[in-house]
Amino acid sequence: MSAPFNFSAGPAMLPAEVMKQAQEEFLNWNNLGISVMEISHRDPAFIRLAEQAEQDLRELMAIPDNYQVLFMHGGGRGQFSAVPQNIAGPNATVDYLNCGIWSEFAIREAQKYVQHVNVVGAAEQTEQGKALAPRERWQLSDNAAYFHYCPNETVDGIALHDIPDVQAPIVADMSSNILSEPLDVSRFGIIYAGAQKNIGPSGFAITIVREDLLGHAQGNTSTIMDYTVQAKERSMYNTPNTFAWYLSALVFQWLKRQGGVAAMGEVNRAKAAKLYDFIDSSDFYRNPVHPNYRSRMNVPFLLADERLDGDFLKQAAQAGLIGLKGHRFVGGMRASIYNAMPLAGVEALVDFMREFERKA
Ligand code: PMP
């Protein structure tokens, strides 16, 4: 049986080439006769891997020298608490744009550590579909320690394609869109991402933090979540997730071979356009998001008759198209089309959707 196309939102598919390489060197990494999982993180061979991974990520994202790159524990949600603890005092005011479910979780977490969490605006229903409150209506604070938003909301498939124009340092949860297109990192105070979509295995996170934001952690911040400690210790304050770090390093090298984020951005645009164009051309399928706010990574869609959802998912799986069930909070379908999903996967999905509609 040929491998299915896996549209899972995360943990998501990884490039086949990367998985194959990991398999080939699983028992004998770097000619050491043992797995990369079985050596010390302080071993010079692992340190070389770790440093190369950072250098590759810096190159891929053109990360300026005044930013630290941290390899953190605890996935995306770990950063929901790490951010307020690290860069806002307990009496501070912080601004959050509520872009959807993941923003809401981030807001709730911030409320534990910071006294004034100001929600500046939220996702809303418009005649053309779900959108975000426009910038003119945001109720920004004068003195926010930071402004937090999620440029790609994985569940609703809502994206903010322009970097917000705000005074406070911008913190972005890029768990589901990091490395998917070129980005001006210098516009951000912090970028963080759980790894399990565009980077590698789950439970791991990458945090890119501007150096002037370091050194302000609240006194009771747990040490493994303290950016300043992790920066000083090169993300090895305690034993890091070495296998996740290794796989992420392979993904970064794969990305470089593909031509980096510029090339990925083009493919990702082509994939998203193909799927949205088809959905828009049909009365049988519908995407609930305003065209200006549509994600290029997560494409939710609904069938006109939801009683067919079960058949759709079953037949899709039989056709080798898996992971299409929408998030349990919103239902329907969702195709997650991160970097590792080739255009051929989206073409196969569109062909299947067309055929399913014809037969229904
Ligand atoms: N932020 C976003 C945008 C996400 O999509 C997710 C997970 N799907 C998270 C945060 C949480 O990540 P984790 O499960 O790694 O904590």
Report on this model:
One of its GO terms (biological process) is L-serine biosynthetic process. One of its GO terms (molecular function) is O-phospho-L-serine:2-oxoglutarate aminotransferase activity. Pathway: Cofactor biosynthesis; pyridoxine 5'-phosphate biosynthesis; pyridoxine 5'-phosphate from D-erythrose 4-phosphate: step 3/5; Amino-acid biosynthesis; L-serine biosynthesis; L-serine from 3-phospho-D-glycerate: step 2/3. Its EC number is 2.6.1.52. It catalyses: 4-(phosphooxy)-L-threonine + 2-oxoglutarate = (R)-3-hydroxy-2-oxo-4-phosphooxybutanoate + L-glutamate; O-phospho-L-serine + 2-oxoglutarate = 3-phosphooxypyruvate + L-glutamate. The protein is globular, with a radius of gyration of 21 Å. Helices cover 34% and strands 19% of the residues. The strands form 4 sheets. It has an 8-stranded mixed sheet. Strand 7 and strand 8 form a beta hairpin. The chain contains 9 helices and 15 strands. Helix 1 packs across helix 6 and helix 3 packs across helix 4. By secondary structure, the chain is α/β, with parallel strands linked by helices. It folds into 2 domains: 224 residues, Aspartate Aminotransferase, domain 2, CATH 3.40.640.10; 101 residues, Aspartate Aminotransferase, domain 1. The model has no long low-confidence stretch (mean pLDDT 97). Bound molecules: 4'-deoxy-4'-aminopyridoxal-5'-phosphate. The site of 4'-deoxy-4'-aminopyridoxal-5'-phosphate has 12 residues, from helix 3.
